[in-house]
Every structure is written in C-alpha cells, then in structure tokens.
C-alpha cells in the first residue's frame, strides 16, 4: 500500500495505548530489515532518516527505496524526517514524498519554536503530511543537577499544552531524561515518568520519546568481542520503556540500537571469516541482526499484531 501519514499511525497508537517504533534508515539493507520485521510482526512502522542520512544516501535513493518497500508492504508505513533543522529541509522532504516531518525548534525560545513549527504545519497539512515538534532539551538526569536546572531542561507540561494548541503539531517530542547516543546515563537510568503522564493529561497528543535505545548489552558484548571498544555505554532499560508507554508515549525513536546491530554483525563476520570479501556476505548478517532487533522492539512497544 502507499505510504500513510504518521498522524494516521499514531492516532491508533494513542487511542489504544501502545507505541510505534521509528527506525532510522541509512541504506538498502536497513530498510529491508525494517520492512521484513514489520511483516513478521504484523506491526505498523515508521522509517525515518536525518538530513545527514538523506544526504549520505541521496534523497531520491532513500525515499524511493522506502516507497518501493511500502508499496509491497501489507502493514501501514510512514516515511519521516528526523530532526529537520529548517523549513527548507522539511519542504525538500515533502517534495520527495515523505509523509511526515519533524521540525526541531527546541533550541529556540518558546515563541520562536511555536512560530517555526506552525510554519511547517501550515505547509505540511495542506498536502496531508504530519508534523512532529520538540519542546525541551534532551539529556540524562544526573544526580548533581539541581531541581531548577532540571526543570529548565525537561519539557514543561503547561508549555507543552500551549505548544500543541498554538502550533497545531501532530506529535510532540518530549524531554524526560533520555538522551541521544550510546552514553545516556552516567549511572542508573532515570526517566521522569510523572512528567510524561502530566503532559499526556494536558495535551492528549501523541508523544514521542527520542534517545530511547536500549544500547542492548548483547550487541555491546558481541561488538567488543570482535574488536570494538565500547565502554561505559548505557541505554534505557526495557522496564522504563514499558512504563513510559503506559504513561502516554506513542512513538519511540531507535537509532543507536540499529547502528550497534549493524556494526556488531559486520565485525563478527570480518573477524571470524577473514577470507570472505563479498559485500553480501559481510552485510547480509547485519541485515538479519537488525531484523531481529526491530522485531524485539515491536514486541516491547506493543505494536506487534496491530496492523
Ligand atoms: Zn532525536
């Protein structure tokens, strides 16, 4: 079926209290793995790419790979721009057939963030494309951060309400203690779950969790076994993810775990099969590894069986 808007996918998730994974895609093999996993799990799915990933692969290549995959899929698929930095970037993606864009104005003061988000909403909604905005600053909640500093960083529930009302965004990325990358927490993971609950009560909006990879220990172990040096890495535990969903998260971004699944599998092949040099033999297992990781996320998020 053709690509659908992200709002359509998230509406059902919001109504029924589950989350849909948004998986970052950089190349053909990653896209295939995500599509296969979604079919395996009968799950709706969001494929997303950053501006840099789109430049790496080419907007045409990436968007067409996803469109071809979606046309063969029997589950709902949306193509989303992750962390769009400008109105121009969002328009470029809309022109390439993306069905959803994120405009990240979180570095602006509140009014500026609302203004740029609304500008993208006004354009995108005309052509049925959905928009994700972001409010707050992502970062781990550390013990040495005082309450004022913490409040300044995390999403304010009242502001979230005003942001949704004034901007018209379809989904809101919230800062509740997660952070991007593989080094999310210095010690134990902490998420402000009460804040998610309050934002949900006030906005009713589809809420998005960024920086939510598990930094899966099995992948780290495999990577390190075959030559990686990943120390002190820490992700969001599965239990916290489940709680976050029960409080109102409907979209969960997964990028770091995709990278780890890919590169740990490539490392294993190169290390254990030094005579192999066929790219299909080197990258094929990475595709299988991603498929397995994505399936696990769909089960964890509760989107399995929802398509
Ligand atoms: Zn993000």
TL;DR of this structure?
With 307 residues, the protein is of the alpha/beta class.
Outline, from the CA principal axes?
A: globular
The first-to-last residue Cα distance is 12 Å
Radius of gyration: 19 Å
Distinct bound molecules: zinc ion
Number of helices: 13
Strand content: 5-15%
Structural class: alpha/beta
Strand order in the sheet with the most strands: 1-2-3-4-5-6-7-8
**Uncertain regions spanning at least 5 consecutive residues:** none
Q: What series of H and E elements makes up the topology?
A: HEHEHHEHEHEHHEHEHHEHH
Mean pLDDT: 95
Sketch the major β-sheet.
8 strands, parallel, barrel
Q: Could you give the count of β-strands?
A: 8
Helix content: 40-55%
Question: How would you summarize the topology of this molecule?
Answer:
Layout: H1 6-16, E1 20-24, H2 28-41, E2 45-50, H3 51-57, H4 59-72, E3 77-84, H5 87-95, E4 100-103, H6 110-124, E5 130-135, H7 147-153, H8 157-167, E6 171-174, H9 193-203, E7 206-209, H10 217-225, H11 238-246, E8 249-254, H12 256-272, H13 279-301
Parallel strand pairs: 1-2, 1-8, 2-3, 3-4, 4-5, 5-6, 6-7, 7-8
Helix pairs in contact: 2-4, 2-13, 3-4, 5-6, 6-8, 8-9, 10-12, 12-13
Characterization of this structure:
The protein is of the alpha/beta class. Helices cover 51% and strands 14% of the residues. It contains 13 helices and eight strands. It has helices at 6-16, 28-41, 51-57, 59-72, 87-95, 110-124, 147-153, 157-167, 193-203, 217-225, 238-246, 256-272, 279-301, and strands at residues 20-24, 45-50, 77-84, 100-103, 130-135, 171-174, 206-209, 249-254. Strand 1, helix 2 (28-41) and strand 2 form a beta-alpha-beta unit. The longest helix is centred in the last third of the chain and has 23 residues, at 279-301. The model has no long low-confidence stretch (mean pLDDT 95). Zinc ion (ZN) binds at residues 83, 180, 210, 253.
């Amino acid at each position: 079926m053709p690509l659908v808007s992200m709002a359509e996918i998230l509406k059902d998730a919001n109504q029924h209290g589950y989350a849909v994974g948004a998986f970052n895609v950089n190349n053909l093999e990653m896209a295939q793995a995500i599509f296969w996993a979604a079919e395996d799990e009968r799950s709706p799915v969001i494929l997303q790419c950053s501006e840099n990933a789109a430049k790496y692969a080419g907007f045409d290549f990436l968007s067409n790979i996803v469109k071809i995959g979606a046309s063969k899929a029997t589950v709902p698929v949306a193509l989303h721009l992750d962390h769009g930095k400008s109105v121009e970037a969002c328009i470029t993606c809309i022109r390439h057939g993306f069905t959803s864009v994120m405009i990240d104005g979180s570095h602006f003061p509140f009014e500026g963030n609302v203004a740029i988000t609304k500008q993208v909403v006004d354009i995108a909604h005309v052509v049925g494309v959905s928009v994700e905005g972001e409010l707050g600053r992502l970062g781990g909640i550390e013990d040495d951060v005082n309450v004022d500093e913490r409040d300044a960083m995390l999403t304010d529930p009242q502001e979230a309400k005003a942001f949704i009302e004034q901007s018209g965004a379809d989904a809101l990325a919230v800062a509740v203690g997660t952070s991007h990358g593989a080094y999310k927490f210095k010690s134990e993971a902490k998420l402000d779950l009460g804040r998610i609950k309050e934002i949900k009560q006030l906005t009713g909006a589809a809420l998005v969790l960024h920086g939510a990879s598990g930094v899966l220990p099995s992948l780290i172990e495999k990577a390190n076994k075959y030559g990686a040096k990943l120390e002190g890495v820490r992700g969001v535990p599965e239990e916290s993810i489940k709680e976050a969903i029960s409080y109102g998260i409907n979209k969960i971004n997964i990028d770091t775990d995709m990278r780890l699944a890919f590169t740990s599998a490539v490392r294993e092949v190169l290390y254990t099969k030094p005579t192999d040099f066929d790219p299909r033999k080197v990258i094929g297992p990475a595709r299988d590894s991603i498929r397995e990781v994505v399936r696990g996320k769909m089960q964890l998020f509760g989107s399995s069986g929802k398509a």
